[in-house]
Design brief:
Layout lengths: L2 H6 L19 H17 L10 H20 L4 H27 L5 H24 L17
Helix pairs in contact: 2-3, 2-5, 3-4, 4-5
């Protein structure tokens, strides 16, 4: 088991990766994502009122989506379903990264605070990637090479 995988789960992880029978609350990535979601909520309290249905709502929805997809995936029946949910969590995390950058450029988030949030976002992304990798390789979609198609 890799050092990253050991860091991701507090207990009960075998050499083949995470045992999906364990609670999502044992996943360090879930714990960090939940704390990050609350940070996003607190940060967006300071956004202008006219952003309540814009960046504020988008950031909050995406932050809740990250932690919720980790929990939902843990409750699924197969590793493949869990892995898929982790991929969805990663996608939502990248939405947050993009939206935070926009918020910083608009002056809604102070540059130093933006840097801290970006660092946390990157750390969670690395943890998600490591957990996905620890679950074993599955066939990944490869875009077709249209240049080699016969006409």
């Amino acid at each position: 088991m890799s050092a990253w995988t050991e860091m991701l789960v507090q207990s009960g992880c075998g050499a083949g990766g995470l045992d999906v029978s364990h609670s999502y609350k044992q996943l360090l990535v879930w714990q960090k994502a939940k704390k990050f979601a609350t940070e996003i909520y607190r940060e967006t309290e300071q956004f202008p009122k006219h952003e309540i249905y814009g960046l504020t709502a988008q950031l909050r929805r995406a932050a809740v989506s990250v932690v919720s997809n980790i929990a939902e995936g843990q409750g699924r029946l197969t590793r493949g379903e869990f892995r898929n949910s982790l991929g969805q969590a990663r996608g939502s995390l990248l939405e947050i990264a993009t939206q935070l950058e926009i918020a910083a450029e608009l002056g809604y988030v102070a540059r130093d605070r933006y840097g801290m949030l970006e660092d946390t976002c990157n750390e969670i992304r690395k943890m998600l990637n490591a957990l996905i990798d620890s679950m074993g390789a599955q066939s990944k979609y490869t875009a077709p090479n249209f240049s080699k198609l016969e006409t």
